[in-house]
Structures are given as structure tokens and as C-alpha cells.
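Inputs:
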Amino acid sequence: MPSSEEMKAAMRSYVERLNAADLEGVLALFTDDATVEDPVGAGVHSGAEAVRAFYAMAIASGARLSIVGPQRGSTSDAAAMALDVLVAPPGAPTMKVGVIETMRFNEAGKIVEMRAYWGPEDMAPAD
Amino acid sequence: MPSSEEMKAAMRSYVERLNAADLEGVLALFTDDATVEDPVGAGVHSGAEAVRAFYAMAIASGARLSIVGPQRGSTSDAAAMALDVLVAPPGAPTMKVGVIETMRFNEAGKIVEMRAYWGPEDMAPAD
């Protein structure tokens, strides 16, 4: 099982690679059978093809992530962090979305599950 | 389904009632078949009796919770928040634990699942 520090480092790599529009780098952090639910309640993207499509869309939307406050671990295979996400779709005003993400990892430290907690009321025009 | 605002309000009540050592008030927020995992990985307290024993212990430890940063909702039945928790067991130094909690709710807005993300490395002597 990965340590909390290894899980937190993987989550920081996730943020850095997304911000660098490095789709292959992002996907390399996930298992082939990973699931992504972002936001929680909006349907689960399951498996490599669906996860690729989701992050391709996220990168196309110009998403810029920044971790807010300390990351948190667990005593098992999961960790969590709070984020501000700036989203700037072409031709639309920039929005800031406040998010809390939880991730679950396999033995090798790859992400098997990502869940992003945010709702419409957590989204506002960016300053 | 409760709104994100209703879920966030329930989570604030949870914090207020725990801080007031109001065990019955805390338990009234949960369903009879609720599960509590705190920290994630340390085993699930399942059902009214186990949840009561867990929160009786939390109150006995002198836990003092404060919400850190904005709470986050979802587009379904779940919400999340970051917390600092001061724990002062009798005769021991006060520790601060950094936590991210997720909760899931039933139709009536009662908590059916609480999961607290923190590991030993998220705990430090309080200032």
C-alpha cells in the first residue's frame, strides 16, 4: 500500500500535469480500470477510454488547479485535498470552482478512484 | 434529496453539537444504520450502537472541531468539508488533527455515511 506521503505526492503530480495540459502524464497516474466522478452525482467515468475523454475535455476547458490548504491522508489507501479550479472555456468568462477531491490508490500507488465534491453553488465568477 | 445547502447546514450542526458535547444531538443527525469511518482505513463503525460508542469516545476525548475554508457540495447526496480538530485527552498534551470529511445523506437529510480522511502525519502538537 502506498504511504500517505506517496498518495499526496501523486495528487500533486495530478495537479501539475493537468495544469501543464499533459494528458498522457495525467492518465499515467490512473489504473486502466479507474473511475472518475466529477462532480459527485454527475455520473461515473469508468475505464481508460472514458477517463481519457474526461481529462481531454478538462484540459480543453483550460482548467487551472491550485491546492488549497494541507492535503490529508488516511490509514489505508485513500487521501483527500481541497482545490480551487479556474475554468476558462473559449469565449466564456472565467469561473472559479471550489472542490474537495478524494482519491483511492492501488498497491502500486496508481489512482483507482477519483471523486470531486462540488455543486453549482460552489462555482462563481473568478475575481 | 437534500440540497447542498441543507447538507452543509447539517455538517455545521454536527460540528456545533460535537463541540457542545451534545451526544444525543449529534446522534440525531444520523440514520439508525449509518456508518462512520474515522480515520478512513481504521475500521467502519456501523449502526446506531457503534456510532454512539464512537461519538461518546470523541466527546470524552475533548474533541473541538473548527471548519477550515468553504464546505463543498455535489450534484447528488454528498458533501465535504475540511476541519481542524483539537483533541485533549485528560493528562495528555493537546494535539491538532487536520481532517477532510465526506458525508452522504438520505432523502430526509440524515447522515448515512461519514468518512474522515487523516493519517498520523496529519496530527501534530497544537500551538
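Chain B touches chain A at residues 4-5, 39-42, 68-70, 72-82, 98-100, 102, 115, 117-122 (CB under 8 Å). Flag for discussion at group meeting.
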